[in-house]
Fold this sequence. Notes:
Blueprint lengths: L2 H33 L3 H11 L3 H4 L1 H13 L1 H10 L1 H20 L6 H31 L3 E4 L2 E4 L9 H25 L2 H32 L3 H22 L3 H25 L5 E9 L2 E5 L7 H28 L6 H6 L2
Antiparallel strand pairs: 1-2, 3-4
Helix pairs in contact: 1-2, 1-4, 1-7, 1-8, 1-11, 4-5, 6-7, 7-8, 7-11, 8-9, 8-11, 9-10, 10-11
Amino acid sequence: MDLPLVWFAIVGLMFVAYFMLDGFDFGVGLSLPILGRTDGERRRIINAIGPVWDLNETWVIVAGAALFAAFPEWYATMFSGFFHALVVLLLGLIVRAVSFEFRHQRDSARWRAGWDACIVAGSAIPAVIWGVAFANLAQGVPMEPHQGGALVTGGLLALLSPYALLGGATTLVLFLAHGTVFLSLKTDGELKASAHRLAGRALLGALVLAALFLGWTVVQHPSPLVVVLAVLAAVTLAGAWLANRAERDGRAFALTAATVALAVGTLLATLLVREGGPFVMPASNPAGDFVGLTVANASSSPYTLEVMTWAAVFSLPVIAAYQIWTYWVFRKRITADHVGAAH
């Protein structure tokens, strides 16, 4: 068994799970100033993700830990090369988490408005940066060999190519669509109707941006696997728009989740099919024998990967089962009566 490749797939699945789950959290936060016309509506919007948002972030923590253990060279190169962007991302996540907890601590409209703005910013910043980061992984970044590994040579501006910025815009609008579809599923009355209308507009915007971004990705990496995944992502996104139009909220949410998974899968597939790979972080400026970090040269020892595999076999099903149970417990819609009863 090729354990480095297995762990590339496991880490990839962890990030897919994270974007599917925390993606709608980001979308809900982005919708707050648009749908939350009254404090009661804003409380309902926040309460829709209140029981699950921190649980959804479990997957990025687990993915980061697995990345550190399974691919230390990839972890070191990416976290040093993307340092400034990742610091901003973490600050955004921290501000968003604090806002959820502090918003209701004082009975002041100005106090709540300030924390609501932080929720929006803390949702928008990670949504954009994650798209920019994964677009850079697919496109490749300028690197040079360094102490047996690699070192990113470009600064922050080197990461902001037109392709990467389009990736950030795509994830921003796609997460907004994913989140508003979730609100349609979790609320009722006028708030549900408003979320349904916003979801329709966001899904159309996501269709346009995703078509441009995934089309550009296919042009750069025209392999059958990348083409199939990109086409499936477009089909599921179009299906989500049709399901939302028919007010089939559960189906629309399942299809937006599938779109997120397929879009991330498309970017990860580019690393597998790139010549000289499979890669974890290709160089955009290959020179001689140095082409970047591959699955083979960036991975830990076989013994480390074997121990990690046994740990994953027992721990990952427990994490998934607990998350499924949590969603089942908090499956009901958030109504105005629920919010009123909580205060």
